Amino acid sequence: MKPYKILMVEDDLSLINGLTFAIRKQGYEIDVARTRLETDAVWDSGKYDLVILDVSLPDGSGFDICQKIRETSTIPIMFLTAADEETDIIMGLDIGADDYITKPFKLAVFLSRINALLRRSDNFSRQDTELTSNGITILPLKGEGYKNGKPLELTSGEYKLLCLFMENPDMILSAEQILGRLWDCDENFIDNRTLAVYIRRLRMKIEDDPGEPVRIVTVRGMGYKWNTNL
Fold it and tell me: 3-class secondary structure for 93-158?
């Protein structure tokens, strides 16, 4: 099996040296870009399996890179950054990132989250059944989603979340169940606040009125469910 290939966008040389060594020990290939310009030069939507982005770069922002990637690709994206304000985290997730890790961090946790993102992305891409409900259609083999026949622009995280809901119609899924099944959360890697961002972002794309959702409904005190009784 061809090894996974990762693109890391980071300008701190000491961090680059340590992380590239650790990532290669996992058996992955890795390319490094230190600026936004270098990223544009090496980026190929079919070449990489995961992108790791810093927010602050010498010639721009990782947020801009994330938005550009999301125009053409659903590849998993992880932010690894010192920008730890809540507004930064929410922005990163809102524009399409699948994970957001703040510095300083534990190397073991960082590698575990890389493994989880790659594993989940691979598992979802291998499914071969069509899921259809409430005017929404998912083609897991292609990683595509449609609403009333029109393509949905879904990030990797949104796509996985939608698949999970549609595979469990009318079942209440707690936040813990969702986090555990999508991100293998043995620790509190992704909290309820982050999940709420994902839910809100997905509703913006699949609901006719996101302010009054009828497909993904909140069951107060219990979790969320995919409602088929429209």
Answer: HHCCCCEEEECCCCHHHHHHHHHHHHHHHHHHHHCCCCEEECCEEEECCCCEEEECCEECCCCHHH
